[in-house]
Amino acid sequence: MRKALLVLVLFVQESDADRVNKLLADKKFTEAVAALTKIIEREPKAAWARVSIGFAWTELKEFDKAAKAFDDAEAIEPANAYLPFNRGRMLAIRGLMDDARRELAKSIDKHPTIFPHWACYWMGVSMISENPEKALIWFEGAREKSPKELEALAYYWRNVGLCHFKQGHWKPAARVYDDGLAKFPDDPWLLQMRALCHLRVGEHDKAREIGRKAEAVLRTKVDHVTEFSLPFRGSWKVVQANGGDETHWGLTAKHAWDFVRVEKGQISKADPKTLEDYFSWDAEVLAPADGVVAVAVDRCDDHLNAPGGDPGEGNHVVIEHAPKEFSAVYHLRKGSVAVKAGQKVKRGDVIGRCGSSGYSLHPHIHYVVCEDARDWICRPSKFSHATVEIPKLGDVVDPVK
Fold first, then answer.
1. How far apart are CA 299 and CA 239, in angstroms?
2. Who wins on pLDDT, 94 or 366?
3. Which of 56, 96, 161, 256 could be cross-linked to 91 through a Cys-Cys bond (beta carbons 3.0 to 4.6 Å apart)?
């Protein structure tokens, strides 16, 4: 009788976790939060429930709530084996890569049997921007541990290809994207990056053809909660607008602008031969709205009249302003980036200076609003406090107070 009672008690204890795990597996995250909230009210010392609700909040992109849940779990059970991985994953998705690496390293070092392949995978994700070569090693390690599970994930092919792409290895990147497209032929991100590989080797027609296929997932209306100001002072001309045939197509750039500074209607001195001959060079670049820096990269060289071999964005800053609202400014001058990931900024703060790093022929600003700090899927946007709200090709725009 006592043994039967013990079995019954264990079954009741396991049923809560089983029910929650099923909700999470079925991606019913709102229902999981509701169920876990009741469990936490009933069992306030249940650290596992707080870790699980932190995972659900992460999937719902409620990062502050996820962070609090993980902090509460740590206060109850500091050595919880599932905590560092889940917190590290949340930080990586949020774009706070330095903090993510710290937590994921704890998971790998102290709890190597807890999600071993996923810990390696997310460590790779956290390193792509800073060290794509090392990130690739982490992805390869994850694949060795669980090849079937990793290869069945579109994000695996996206990120491995991106490691090659960010090193300027266009052909290896193309092969990875082709392998991914063989499994996921309609994945918009794989299509977008395959198109960019064509672009980097000069196959512009193929690039545009494939890039247009990826555009179907883009939004068609402006519905931001943030008011964005122009990221500069003075008069700047649009040299490539939304939907530009040259490079402004596909997931990352259909809704982007390229701006150059003008003086007396000119973008440079007569017969420009140096970067300094362009009026855009070294001009201050400003935060377009209040927010938190999600990505700040400052390692790419500047160049003139030939696109660099580094990734297209070059030195760049991405700022989170609201859920699914990230502004991104590319091609900053090497050594000029004035902010770090995790830093709060105010509208008008100087975040860097205009340069010509990345896929750039001369100094200019590439500006776009994105949905996600990692994927950079662009969205329609507009400018407040500007002479032109939605600039078109050839427009000259100025900030207005």
1. 25
2. 366
3. 96
Mean pLDDT of 337-353: 96
Contacts of 77 (CB under 8 A, 6+ apart): 47, 83
Q: Tell me, which fold does domain 236-397 have in CATH?
A: Glucose Permease (Domain IIA) (2.70.70)
CB atoms under 10 Å from CB of 92, counted, come to: 26
Q: Length of the chain, please?
A: 401
Tens digits of per-residue pLDDT, 149-186?
999 999 999 999 999 998 889 999 999 999 999 999 99
DSSP 366: E
The per-residue pLDDT for 156 is 96
Q: Which of the four CATH numbers 1.25.40.10, 1.20.140.160, 3.40.1190.20, 2.170.270.10 does domain 153-217 have?
A: 1.25.40.10
- Both structure tokens of 84: 């560092």
CA 105 to chain centre: 21
The mean pLDDT value for 243-266 works out to 91
Q: CB atoms < 10 A from the CB of 55, how many? A: 24
Structure tokens at 21: 């795990």
End-to-end CA distance of the chain: 80
Q: Token match 């790093």: residue?
A: 357
Residue 349 neighbours by CB distance under 10 Å:
18
pLDDT band at 308 (very low <50, low <70, confident <90, very high): low
Residue indicated by tokens 């197509």: 249
User: What is the model's pTM?
Assistant: 0.75
SS3 of 327, please?
strand
Task: Tell me how far apart the alpha carbons of residues 307 and 360 are, in angstroms, rounded to a whole number.
Answer: 5
Tokens standing for residue 332: 């900053």
